[in-house]
Every structure is written in C-alpha cells, then in structure tokens.
Amino acid sequence: MVIDRERYLDKLISHMNNGLIKVITGIRRCGKSYLLFEIFYNYLLEQGVSKENIIAVPLDDEEYSELRDPHKLNDYIKNRLVDSNQNYYVFIDEAQYAITKEEMKNPDVPIRLYGVLNGLLRKKNVDVYVTGSNSKFLSSDIMTEFRGRGDEIHIAPLSFSEYLPASGKDKFDAWQEYTYYGGLPHVLVEPDDQSKAAYLERLNREIYLRDICERYDIHEGSGMEELMKLLASAIGSLTNPQKVSDTFTSSGRKGISMPTIANYLKYLQESFIVQKAERYDIKGRKYISTPSKYYYTDIGLRNAFLNFRQYEETHIMENIIYNELIYRGYNVDVGVVEIRANEDGKRTKKQLEVDFVANQGSKRYYIQAAFALPDKEKMDQEQASLVKISDSFKKIIVVSGNTKIWRNEQGITIMSLFDFLLNEDSLEY
Prior knowledge:
By secondary structure, the chain is of the alpha/beta class. 40% of the residues lie in helices and 22% in strands.
C-alpha cells in the first residue's frame, strides 16, 4: 500500500541542500523511514539523481551492523563521495544504533556520531538526513548539539485526510475505524479489527513502554504504565503532577513521588507519545502554569492502553481536532476567559474555557469542539466563552455529523467535523 505523504515530501524538498542536517523526528512507527527511504528516495531518482549518489544506511539492518561503529560509518560514507563536483544525499536511519549507552547516559562522554555528522556538514556537496527512534535519539539531543545547523522535520501519524483515501472506505466508516485504531500506517494493512487491536497493544507493550524505560533507566515500569493509562483515560481533562499523585495515592499506589511523576510526563512528551496543551488567559494575555491538558499523538495507541474499553467519542473527537491543528503547523493552547458573574447576589469571578487557541504567525483562531448542537440551550453553552472574547480573531465551533457551514448572529462560524478535517483551508471559511 502506497500512502502519499505530500506535506512531508514537500518539506523535505523545500529543505534540500540548505547546509543543515535534516533531523526527521516522530513517534515510532509513524512512517519516518518510509518517507525517507521510499518516498523521498524515489523523488530524487525522478529528478535525475543517480542511485550511486544516494548513500542510504539503515543502521537497524544487520547487513549494516558494522557501520554502527561511527569510525566505520564515516569511512563508508566518505569512500562513496568520489566526485567533488556532484551532489550526494546521505540517509542515516535509526541513528541511535551508532550511539553507545555510555554516550547517551553520560553527558561528559562525547557522542562520536556527532563528529561524523559535523564532518559531513563541512562538505558543500553533501546533503544529510537523519532519523532515529524517538525514545533514544530525540530531537532535543541532536538539535542542541547542532544548534543553528540542525533542521527538524516532525512526522505525525496519518491525519484523517491521509487515512480516508488509503482506507478505501466512505468517510463515515473510515471515521469509525480511525477513532478506534488511529493513524499509524501499518494499521491499514492489518486484515481485521482483532489484528489491528493486537498490533497496537503489542506496540504499547514491546516498543513504547520498553523504550522509555530503557532510555531513562526506569527499573520498575509499572508506574509509567499506570501513568500512561491514567492520561489515556483523561484526555481533554486538566491535570498536573500533584493531581496525578493524588489519584495514585487514592487508588492505593504508593512509592511514586510528585517529582518522579513530573519527570515521567516529560519523558512521554519527549518520546512524542503525548502532547501538552498549556492554558492561556485570553484577556490577560498570559499563560497559566498549571494545570494543563495532555493529548495522545495517536488515538489508537490511547485506546489500546485502555483495552478499547473506554470509547468516548466526544473526548476522542477533541483529541483528533487537536492533532489536526498540530499537523497543520499551529501552536495550540487551551483558552481561558475570565468573567464576572452574579451568584446568589454576590459578584464572583468565573473561568470559561475555549477548547483550542490555534496560533500561526499573525493568525489566530478560537475553536470549540461540540458533539452536537441540538437546540439553542446547547448552542448558548458551547459559545458562552467565545462571545466573551472581544478581539476580532475568528471563532469557530466544529460539530460532528452533517451540517452546512454557516455563521450565526454572534459572528461564530459553525462547521462539520468532516469539513474541518478534510479541507486544509477550512478555518478560512
């Protein structure tokens, strides 16, 4: 099955030969290697680049195991650079195989692979692309080392607009499947629901949880596993380390301190398993440090952590809308609007929430996710926070089901979930 990931191919094309190392990041199994070794490789061939000028090194392949030694890798690549008048393209896949555990764990031990990449950077006719397991070779590692000389291209699981044509289903059946099993590309080739579920459960157990514990020296993985399940069951809910600690304590779980939980949350973000949305005071124009919301990068992995027993379409829809905004390149916060209200004859302060504040350059959108708007009471409830925002940025309510795009008397645009997801320019309506 060929899935055309045009957005990411276009990014690679626009970053070609820019003198920087292209670091391709993303959650495991989201398609980084396929993008580089299949889609981009074939693009280069179509542009007339010779196969001899594409030096592809998949370090996870046993055939290339000797090249996990950085000195041998360096010799192999430089021996292929035979003509200084021609351009060469170097692909290093699963680069963490060329980094020893001692190098990763001890900040005083230099990482020899970085020396290899630095040497390639100095060659004007060499363009370098690197991928790595997100739990061992994170963007934060290499982007810090190559500050000003590294160029991160982040890959997400399939968006619904990518998933739909590849699924061969109509949008309703595809949506149902997508909300259960998510957008990791291999899900599409599994033959049935049982196989899809087993694949995701296996990834959670054998790849993501194991990788995080190995990277961060977590000797008892049950605490991390419980945290991942807790976040999965609470997508769209406000939380912080203290709240998680209290939940663990109330359920009888002891021995995990609040600082440890804070570190675990950071590890999950660094591994791209969850993403954090901070709260933003819209009127006060400032961030609220805690609590925050956490969303799963892939909704199928979230469901698998809960054994597919907690299917809440409202929260799942909210998570997918968040992922779509991130996919489109927006910075996304949770909005807070503070108002004064009369309750029992007393003036009180009250906070209303805007599901998402999406920013991109000078653009900003305020977005609410609503499962349904059956009557005026529900409409008033969903738009209560939006009508209290005095600036002129666009306000949108995304509703599941079929509805035409329209604008109400409050100036708020209402559109269907499918209109939002399947048209990248939908926020401009």
